[in-house]
Amino acid sequence: MFEGIYPPLPTPFSNGEIAFEKLQENISKFNKTKLKGYVILGSNGEFSFLTREEKIELIKQARLACDKDKLIIAGTGSDSIKDTISLTEEAAKAGANAALILTPSYYKSQMKHKAIIEYFSNVAAHSPIPVLIYNVPKFTGIDIMPSTVSELAKHNNIIGIKNSSENIAHLMEIINKTPKNFLVLTGTGSVIYSSATCGAKGAIAALANVAPNQCVDVYEYASCGKFKEALTLQMKLLDLNKAVTATYGVAGLKKAMDLVGYFGGETRLPLLPLNESEISEIKSVVNLFLQNT
């Protein structure tokens, strides 16, 4: 049901406040693409800068704009089990189909196998919607082990993982240690091809906000054995993916969206906007992408 490509939608801001009408406009455009659905309140959604009320309203507004055949995955994780369960319950009422739960990380030295098992098992037991583990070591400093994922996959309400790492060996080990129906999604657009050939079931990738159909095509080509076509297209996306992730981050992603016809808009402080030199550089990358595809 959840297999496919999802963009982690940026939260559109105008003068520091959420521009809900721009969110709906973006989703209306994305509805015409081959995307499986949308992630709300992901890292690219600047979720850590949002109030609880804003988070719930974003899910509600996204659901209103979302076509019936598109799914919504909501990021509802925090270090607190109690708060995570509460927000997940509210997200479900607001229209989320699944919850993306970040690994707890404040006491990272203590977040070993048993603690991670207890955290996700407790959340999943109380969640009214399916749970996806969100492994993003570059932000949390926690890299969940494949053996831990394997044990969590036994829980009937933990259906998969978003693994935001370019370490294909790590992803392959997760796939090898979990059941075939366990949803393994890569979290970066640079390895959609590689992960799909290893058995991943799709991606939650920032790149899909700028090149939605191309990301879907890479995944579908690789999944059906059209490896040459998949690899050729994946290679064309590498520079763009690097620009909207590692190099320029959320501000770069939003500028790239502006350049390809969506609304990116501002970041929320303390994230800073791009300077003129950075804007010029990302324009060059986007223009090259448009020429080559």
Give the beta-strand count: 10
Secondary-structure-based class equals: alpha/beta
Radius of gyration: 18 Å
Number of helices: 12
Largest sheet: 6 strands, parallel
List the domain count as a whole number: 1
> Roughly what percent helix?
40-55%
| Alpha carbon gap, first and last residue | 29 Å
Low-confidence stretches: none
Spatial strand sequence of the major β-sheet = 4-5-6-7-8-9
Could you give the order of the helices and strands?
EEEHEHEHEHEHHEHEHEHHHH
Q: Would you state the CATH class? A: Alpha Beta
Q: Give the CATH topology.
A: TIM Barrel
On the 0-100 scale, what is the average pLDDT? Answer: 97
What proportion strand? 5-15%
CATH architecture: Alpha-Beta Barrel
Q: Find the CATH superfamily.
A: Aldolase class I
Shape, principal axes of CA atoms: globular
Task: Give an account of the 3D structure.
- The protein has one domain: TIM Barrel.
- It contains twelve helices and ten strands.
- β2 and β3 form a beta hairpin.
Outline the fold blueprint.
Elements: E1 4-6, E2 13-14, E3 17-18, H1 20-30, E4 37-40, H2 52-65, E5 71-75, H3 81-94, E6 98-102, H4 113-126, E7 131-135, H5 137-140, H6 146-152, E8 158-163, H7 168-177, E9 183-186, H8 192-198, E10 202-204, H9 212-223, H10 227-247, H11 249-259, H12 276-292
Helix pairs in contact: 1-2, 2-3, 3-4, 4-6, 6-7, 8-9, 9-10, 10-11, 10-12, 11-12
